[in-house]
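Quarterly update from the structural biology core.
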Amino acid sequence: MADVNRGNRPLSPHLTIYRPQLTSMTSIFVRITGNALLVAALLIVWWFIAASIGAESFATADAVLRSWFGDLVLFGSVWALWYHMLGGIRHLIWDSGRMLEVQESERFGLFMIVGSLLLTLFVIAVV
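Predicted structure, tokenized:
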């Protein structure tokens, strides 16, 4: 049966009461980076399709990927890949029942941030 008093109850106040925690923010950014990687994937797929269509299409796609916007997207994608991968490893560790204490979780969150930045700089320096 439908709840007739549903409109009279207040909404959950969780967004106004709880302060953001490092573990929750890093988990949210794992989801955001996963979705943002779709933009880079679409750009790369567009580049491959343009290469198969012809020289003029490829020149346009290549110009976009070699522009400052393309460099920014690809640099951000490298960081997002590392960050998303480290977040996935963290969730696998949590699924095994390890590192569930607050201090350990926050330490791994800091490791995710610093590690992803260092790995990104390493990849950019090597490539």
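The radius of gyration is 21 Å.
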